[in-house]
């Protein structure tokens, strides 16, 4: 039998207990230096450990230490072995069990009041939060562990449980929208450069810039809090953009916690080995941005998805039920629509239609909730969702299926619940067209001067009534003009205004305020010519680009004076109305910039004939991304301007030429 001391010497240490117990920092350094020697040295040491363990009695005090050392060495060899099976999903725990990777993904953590992008790994017995280390070119990427929580000690923390929640830096929504527009412009430029000779080097530079912008968006967009707490230590907070995603993480953790889990405390070296193994174990390799996709991958759908949520069945008890719809864009999911609450039922029949804008979307998610009426939960922050998720599911948006003219009916099964819905898709090229109405007796799709002349009014009746109703009961509504109204309600209002029935006022007073706001937006969007006219559109684009404040002021006021009277007299009351809405920004969350983002393209986007003249731009989709930032800036300029009087503008007309 080999002498125990000689075996210790072959391992490169004078005393094995000293080597294995890591009682001081010096001991950790000794072990680290051994691990990072050439692989053959570690392999030989592992074989010696195996031999030593075989000849050591199980009741010997060194036996468990030898077991730990052998396990650590084997894990280390597995983690750095280049021939490793890429499907490997587990490492060995101190008890010799397999520590399986269950789920991983990129999440935004609130750390020291700032946002940090982390890669989070959920194992069968612990949750590990890591960040990617900066490495020099040519070296393998490595993770650094920021913290971990044994699942046996993990609880989900709510605001009521925490003494103080970390302050969350939330950017104004207009900054998020501006970045989306910049990314859209870059995408258009990349497509053009791909067709140009020798354009690859510029494509690479544009892709790098787009990656930076999409990464910024991924970091700053999420606002839904997801808190985890270590019963014996700290609390940590993530921000997610999707309640679906938060529910998935919570459910995965809770499912693992149903097992008989013991608290696992990792030594520094065990943590090092586990963190190193994450690089091989991970299932999500890149942050979810479009610039990381291959050219062959589907770019997703751009345009408008019309969805009708019909009904649901499979509930065990009566409840107050509603659904929300999420779609993905720019690498993350966002909530886009919400049905009404159907009360005290096991089979809700919503039959509500929504129009959802898609920006490179691949999936539609539907979440079904039970409405919570616990009054103690009403003081949550704006992004804290307290209603119970009854079920959730998603479908892939197959272009061949949804791009037909007919409705496509489908069913999502979720946790024993079946939600029935229909959908159809309209491409952005088609949705951007201003199509004149064939019937000139209505108001939608009819020139504004025709409507005002017929009504013998200065401002169309539909504009006056919608503005009045929004100011009466919608000016405090969170997201007014941004949140979509139910499409079926908007179409009903459109029909009433087009047929000029006597029931308009009664119908307006009973209608959801978001539907009324949506009807006003639809009216301006369907004008055969934009409110600020095709003729003046190029001048507006040039005027807003002027750098000299005085020159810009003169030009922008001159352009207003150049508008036809019906257009100007409609634009000015709308401008005043939007300013009054923005005064309530602390309540309704709608700033001047938010409102300019919503209304700018609607009031300025040229008609189809004008788009066709722009020969340097190949499609309606391109002109959207090319000019939309300027359209927003034009309206924002007037919203930020001191009050503008029609009479004052017309008085000044005497001193200026109206030729533009």
From TrEMBL:
PROSITE patterns: C2, DH_2, PH_DOMAIN, RHOGAP. Residues 31-83 form the DH domain. One of its GO terms (cellular component) is dendritic spine. It is found in: Cell projection, Axon; Cell projection, Dendritic spine. Its main location: other. InterPro entries: Abr/Bcr (IPR037769), C2_dom (IPR000008), C2_domain_sf (IPR035892), DBL_dom_sf (IPR035899), DH_dom (IPR000219), PH-like_dom_sf (IPR011993), PH_domain (IPR001849), Rho_GTPase_activation_prot (IPR008936). Keywords: Cell projection, GTPase activation, Guanine-nucleotide releasing factor, Synapse. Residues 446-646 form the Rho-GAP domain. Residues 100-258 form the PH domain. SUPFAM superfamilies: C2 domain (Calcium/lipid-binding domain, CaLB) (SSF49562), DBL homology domain (DH-domain) (SSF48065), GTPase activation domain, GAP (SSF48350), PH domain-like (SSF50729). Residues 283-412 form the C2 domain. SMART domains: C2, PH, RhoGAP. GO terms for molecular function: GTPase activator activity; guanyl-nucleotide exchange factor activity. Pfam families: C2 (PF00168), PH_19 (PF19057), RhoGAP (PF00620), RhoGEF (PF00621). One of its GO terms (biological process) is signal transduction. The keyword DNA damage does not apply. This is Active breakpoint cluster region-related protein isoform X6. It comes from Gymnodraco acuticeps (Antarctic dragonfish). The gene is abr.
